[in-house]
Amino acid sequence: KLNIQNKTKAMGIHFSGIGFSILVTDLIVRIVFYFNGTWQLSWIVLAIFAFVMSFFYFCNSINNMYNCNNT
User: Fold this and answer.
1) How far apart, in whole angstroms, are the C-alpha atoms of residue 18 and residue 25?
2) CA 52, chain centre distance (Å)
3) How does pLDDT run across 5-63, given as a tens digit for each residue?
4) How far apart are CA 51 and CA 41, in angstroms?
5) Which of 21, 24, 36, 51 is the most exposed place for a label (fewest CB within 10 A)?
């Protein structure tokens, strides 16, 4: 459980991540449309972006798991 003092800060960090994700996806779609892309192309670009980000997250998680076991 969270302390009452830390609850507001933790919730702010949690919900700021959602806002940041909305901002990033909006910027990606605007860039695709700026170069005369279609909404179908923007979905493909967003899917590629999500794949790349999840790959880095996965690699970082594996790396942290092995580094934590060695210390």
Assistant:
1) 11
2) 10
3) 666 677 777 788 888 999 999 999 999 999 999 999 999 999 999 999 998 888 888 77
4) 15
5) 36
